[in-house]
Design goal:
- The protein has about 325 residues and is of the alpha/beta class.
- The chain has a domain of about 90 residues.
- Helices cover about 30% and strands about 20% of the residues.
- The strands form 3 sheets. It has a 6-stranded mixed sheet, sandwiched between helices. Strands 1, 2, 4, 5 and 6 form a 5-stranded antiparallel sheet that branches.
- The longest helix is centred in the middle third of the chain and has 18 residues.
């Protein structure tokens, strides 16, 4: 049985301009101990999908799914009291910005021991000992002294390590890392990624890595789900995705990698991810796709077969070229 099962997850928000769909029919299965990466530009609905799973979205959000199950439990029907026992213990999340995720008014020690008190029921001495152990585990020097430090007294990398310590404090089965290296410099990014992989291997937990960095995906993930404008456009094992992408968006992301470019000028994807008021009638990627046809502009695509990475495309790619492509309609 998969640890996490998501089928046709849709998340919409009620705004002043009407209903906005941030996540549109996303599906994801994660096995115990597996590392899965969710890739896409900002605005692709990656974080929103995971926040919906954890029940952390505001009241303006409407969440629906055919299946939303964690460790055999239905996350849509589970009582709120039981959900609180799961979130932060069996399922935890490392948020994108540690400086905004940590409360500046409380010490690192207070914030780290709070979940230990709520979920594990440890007494004060036990909580302090466990907090020191966790800070040592994530590579923070002089952990006992750091307990009394406030977030602003630590560097960005140290705060991110504190966030990781908080997330793994109750030995979760599933850890969701939301852009864990975005706000850090390159050397610290590598350290944080190595730490996450080390902890995942030691504890045998499943890891969902949300990122827009294809280099990170290549180094860490076993399977990849690519999202664009709230839709899942492709799912493949990481080796298959890098060697043979089936969706034009995936191909464009890979072509933007410096090591794949023979030119002094890096390739880029023209345009931006569509928002609430500028979504195309047909394929959402059509305004930016080099293979677009009139059919793409007017008709939404259907999910393709497994052999084509379930690509959401009228003309999924094979060997770098679109299949069944009507050249007379091409732009």
């Amino acid at each position: 049985m998969p640890l996490l099962e998501i089928e046709n997850l849709t998340v919409s928000f009620q705004t002043a301009g009407g209903q906005f769909t941030a996540v549109d029919r996303v599906s994801l299965h994660i096995e115990p101990g597996e590392i899965v990466s969710v890739v896409g530009e900002s605005g692709s609905g990656k974080s929103v999908a995971m926040l919906a799973l954890m029940g952390l979205l505001p009241w303006t959000a409407t969440v629906t799914a055919d299946v939303l199950r964690f460790a055999g439990q239905d996350m849509q029907t589970i009582p709120k009291q039981e959900l609180r026992k799961i979130i932060g213990s069996k399922m935890a999340m490392i948020f994108q910005e540690p400086m905004t995720s940590l409360n500046p008014c409380f010490t690192v020690g207070f914030q780290l021991t709070e979940s230990l008190k709520i979920h594990l029921g440890l007494n004060r001495a036990q909580r302090k000992a466990r907090a020191i152990e966790l800070l040592e585990l994530v590579g923070i020097p002089e952990p006992q002294k750091r307990l009394s430090a406030f977030p602003h007294q630590l560097s960005g990398g140290m705060n991110q390590r504190v966030m990781i310590a908080m997330a793994i404090s109750c030995d979760p089965q599933l850890l969701i890392a939301d852009e864990p290296t975005t706000a850090l410099d390159v050397t610290i990014q590598a350290q944080i990624l190595d730490l996450l992989l080390k902890l995942q291997k030691e504890k045998g937990m499943s890891l969902v890595l949300i990122t827009h960095d294809m280099g990170v995906v290549a180094e860490t993930a076993e399977r990849v789900a690519v999202q664009y404008a709230g839709q899942q456009v492709e799912k493949q094992p990481v080796k298959g995705l890098f060697s043979s992408p089936h969706h034009p968006y995936t191909q464009a992301l890979l072509n933007s990698l410096p090591e794949r470019s023979d030119s002094k000028i890096l390739p880029s994807i023209a345009g931006v991810v569509p928002g609430q008021f500028d979504k195309p009638k047909g394929c959402l990627f059509s305004p930016r796709c080099e293979y677009v046809t009139d059919h793409c502009r007017t008709t939404p695509p259907q999910i393709g077969p497994e052999s084509f990475g379930r690509a959401l495309c009228h003309y999924p790619l094979k060997d770098g070229k679109p299949t069944n492509y009507p050249k007379e309609e091409a732009k």
